[in-house]
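Practice problem: predict the structure.
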Amino acid sequence: MRIVSLVPAATEIAFALGSGDDVVAVTHDCDYPEAARALPRVTRSTIPAGTSSRDIDVAVRAAAAEGDSTFHVDASVGRAREAASFVASLRERIDRVRERVARLPHPTVVALEWLDPLFSAGHWVPEQVAAAGGVELIGRANARSREISLDDVVAADPDYVLILPCGFDAERAARESRVLIADERWTQLRAVRDGHVLTLDGNAYFSRPGPRVVDGIELLASALHGKVPARVV
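Answer:
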């Protein structure tokens, strides 16, 4: 079997199920696992690297207005048994985290998926927060991310603010957060005063619906509670 993976999450899953040798090409965004980086790229970004959050947002909105499609790829690699075992192992890890945080205080959280303009995190991120023992105040599970204002975050006044921009690593997230730090309303937040603003690798652990979503849950549990061991630190 020869597989061309056009979705980073699908690439991660294929390798996790033992089908990495069948993958012959990937997208420019497929950066995990390491072996995927060496494969031929069959796509390229139409937005230059280093483009600011605001300019990326403008470019994506313009492309959507022109009718560009969103492509959905579903590939079977013929490893049903391996998949069942792997999914069971992921569920066990999530259950272990839930058990460990069940009797701990559940801090409130606002997760930010984009910074300029500001977007709350939706989709599966609120579920990650809940599994890690947190309470998301703005984002809703299984709902789209939505544009909000900094005033909305100030009104919610969470215990923690999670900065995890879609597609950015922690270093890029920290750079992009300067747009928030420059706003005088930022210092009104309890999370800022308490040092509970976390810049996280959204690209690896929160943006992609792949196996490392579970790593993200473990990472959040460790960050929100401290006492909870995590595989990812």
